[in-house]
Amino acid sequence: MIISFFDITEDERIKFASLPAEHTFVFHRQSLTIQNAATIKETDILYIRSFSQVTADILSCLPKLKYIATRSTGFDNIDIDYCKQRGIVVSNVPSYATNAVAEHTFGLLLSLTHNIASCVQVSRTGQYLVGPQGFDIFGKTIGIVGLGNIGVRVAEIAKGFGMRVLVNSKHPSSKRAKMHGVKFINLSTLLKESDIVTIHVPLTDETHHMLNMGNISFLKKGSILLNTSRGEIIETQAIHWALQHEILYGAGLDVLENEQGLKEYNSGSKRGPLDITSLNYKFMVDKRVMITPHNAYHTKEALDTILRISCENIMAFLEGNPINRVI
C-alpha cells in the first residue's frame, strides 16, 4: 500500500521505521491541500494532523483512499460524512496530551493572574522591584466546561491550588461529582458563578459557539476565560465584546476561531473571513489576552505518545483490525 504522510518533520519520519518495509512511504513537510492532493492519487492510507483540512473536494482526488489516521484527538478537520459514504476508515489518537493541555491551561491562567508577560517586559527595561499587581487563584471558583480526561486533570490541579470547582458536562452524576470533588451545574449558572471559565469539550455541531453573544454577558465581571480546546467553541465577537465592556479581566487562548483562515491570510494565499481575522489580530496586541499558537499539546511526552499510537493505528489497519476508530 501507499502511505502518504503530511506535516512530518525529519525527526518524526524515524518513528515510522517500524512499519512494514513492503509498503511505500511518501513524506511531505507541508499540510495536505487540494493542490498537492492531486499528486498522490494512488494513496491508500493518509496520515495528517489538524492543520490539514480534509474536505470532500480533497477526498474526491484520492479514489483509492481506504484509511485516514489523524495525529490529533479532534477530527473536525475531516469530512466525516463523506468518509462514511466512501467507506473510508478514520482513526484518531485519544488522550495523548492530557497532562500537557491541563498544565498549559494553568500556564495561561497564572500568566494572566500574575501579569507575568508584563513583569518580564518591565525587567527587560532594566527596572526592578516594580511591576503590575496580580491576584491569587487560591479560594477562587473555576468553572470547567467538559469533564473528559483533560477536564478531570484540570479539576485535580485546581483542587491543588485550593480552588472551588464547578463543572458543566453532558454526563453529570453524583458519583463523578464525589469522585472528583466537583459540583455539576448548568452552563448559565457556571458562567455567573465562576471567576475563571475554562473550555475542555470537543468541537461538534452542539458545542459550536457554545459561548456566544447570547450568553457571554452571563460571565462574572472581572472573570477570566480560557480555551485550549477548539477556537470555534467560542464566538470570536463575544470575546471581543466582553473585553470591550470589561466583563472579562482577560482571556487565555491557545486556539482561535478560523485558525486555517488566519494561516492563509498570513501566507497571502487567501484572505478568509475578515471580521474574525481582524479580531484575532486585535487579540494579539491586547495585553489582556494571552495567545499561544495552538501548541498546548506540544510537549516531548505528548509527541512521543502521538507518534507511538499513530504507528499502532496504521499497523492495526494494515493487519485488518483498525483501532481507535472514529468511523
Structure characteristics:
single chain; 327 residues; alpha/beta; Rossmann fold; 2 domains; five-stranded parallel sheet; globular
List the helices and strands and how they pair.
Elements: E1 2-5, H1 10-14, E2 24-27, H2 34-37, E3 45-48, H3 56-59, E4 67-70, H4 80-86, E5 89-91, H5 98-113, H6 116-124, E6 141-145, H7 149-160, E7 164-168, H8 174-180, E8 183-184, H9 187-193, E9 196-199, E10 223-227, H10 236-244, E11 248-253, H11 259-267, H12 274-284, E12 289-291, H13 300-318
Parallel strand pairs: 1-2, 1-3, 3-4, 4-5, 6-7, 6-9, 7-8, 9-10, 10-11, 11-12
Helix pairs in contact: 5-7
What does this structure look like?
It is a single chain. The two termini are 21 Å apart. The chain is of the alpha/beta class. The strands form 2 sheets. Strands 8-7-6-9-10-11-12 form a 7-stranded parallel β-sheet, with helices on both faces. The protein folds into 2 domains: 2-96 and 300-318, NAD(P)-binding Rossmann-like Domain (Rossmann fold, 3-Layer(aba) Sandwich); 98-291, NAD(P)-binding Rossmann-like Domain (Rossmann fold). The longest helix is centred in the last third of the chain and has 19 residues, at 300-318. The model has no long low-confidence stretch (mean pLDDT 94). 37% of the residues are buried. The chain contains 13 helices and 12 strands.
Compact description:
The chain folds into two domains: 2-96 and 300-318, Rossmann fold (3-Layer(aba) Sandwich), CATH 3.40.50.720; 98-291, Rossmann fold, CATH 3.40.50. Helix content is 36%, strand content 15%.
